[in-house]
Design a protein that fits this description.
By secondary structure, this protein is α/β, with parallel strands linked by helices. It contains eleven helices and 14 strands.
């Protein structure tokens, strides 16, 4: 099978690329001029330079492909120009699906996000049937992913074979950028996590997420969402797990959301707007944290053979990778 894969230089996408290659696929990978290709080292694939914001230039890359696996997205919780994010995530997805149809690509796997689900402030475990609307989406990233997912659903309803996957919060090795979740781990390893807020996440092993992209090329219900999750954990439980894995202390101080919101407002305005630097905390992130992002993967278990795995191995892989690649000093080792 010949696959056109977007997002292969990202965290999830690099794992998907290797899973597809291991399954024997012939890969054509979308990269950008500025992409760091280190994560693709040793991978047999053809690279194509392009940009989701200029989709028409990707028509030739899709020619002759059996499948499109669309993982790429602008994943940031703070962005100077929201229109750039919308152009990549929403318009880019819509146009890429159109080009795939026009190029005769038979199957599409679209990587959405659990962020599009209808999370509540109380500890409710949501699934694909939980009611939700775009008005419930907090921040530019979540809104853009919700609208992009609607494009994928609409394409499927019009007859295109589009399987939608919704990973929760992937964790594991090779998170080079790192993602917002990877930053939690890096900050913990660098002892920059003096306190925590009362929030919750569902952590999933990125390797299992990657495996599902290969499976979804043959299985799954077109136009339906499939949550790929692992363990539902509070932030404090995640930090305690990291403490157990590393021997580093877990923060004991819980900060009220109102205090975290005030700090984020200051950080976003001072560092983001005045100094032009990415803030450590954003108002949107704190507002998102007021909801427990707990989810069920029962549909993916039934339809795709997804495995809900304990997250400790993935956390260990992330910690070891960040240590090995200089993101933080190992305990007892003085940073140079």
């Amino acid at each position: 099978m010949k696959i056109f894969l977007t997002g292969a230089t990202g965290f999830v996408g690099s794992h998907v690329a290797r899973a597809c290659a291991a399954a024997g696929a012939e890969l054509r990978l979308l990269t950008r001029k500025t992409s760091n290709l280190a994560g693709l080292e040793g991978l047999r694939a053809t690279t194509v330079v392009g940009d989701l914001r200029q989709p028409e230039a990707l028509r030739s890359a899709l020619a002759g492909c059996d499948a499109l696996v669309h993982v790429a997205a602008d994943y940031r919780l703070w962005v100077r120009d929201p229109e750039e994010m919308h152009a990549a995530n929403v318009a880019g997805t819509r146009e890429l699906l159109r080009l795939a149809r026009e190029s005769g690509v038979q199957r599409v796997v679209y990587t959405s996000s659990v962020a599009t689900m209808g999370f509540k402030r109380e500890t409710t475990i949501v699934d694909e049937a939980t009611p939700v609307s775009v008005d419930e989406m907090i921040g530019h990233y979540k809104r853009s992913k919700f609208l992009a997912e609607q494009e994928a659903i609409a394409a499927a309803r019009a007859g295109q074979h589009v399987i939608i996957l919704n990973p929760t919060t992937p964790i594991g090795a090779n998170d080079a950028k790192p993602t917002p979740t990877g930053r939690i781990v890096v900050d913990f390893l660098n002892r920059n996590f003096p306190a925590y807020v009362d929030t919750g996440l569902n952590l999933v092993d990125v390797a299992e997420v990657a495996r599902m992209h290969v499976v979804a090329l043959d299985r799954g219900t077109p136009g339906e969402r499939h949550i790929l999750g692992g363990e539902n954990l509070t932030l404090k439980q995640i930090l305690d797990r990291l403490a157990g894995l590393t021997g580093l202390p877990s923060p004991a101080l819980k900060v009220p959301h109102a205090v975290a919101l005030a700090f984020a407002f200051f950080d976003e305005n001072f560092n983001g707007k005045l100094r032009g630097r990415e803030p450590r905390a954003t108002v949107e992130a704190v507002r998102m944290g007021q909801k427990m992002m707990f989810a069920s993967s029962a549909r993916a278990e039934r339809e795709l053979g997804f495995h809900v795995l304990p997250v400790d191995n993935a956390l260990r892989a992330a910690v070891d990778w960040f240590w090995a690649n200089g993101y933080a000093p190992r305990p007892g080792v003085t940073a140079k």
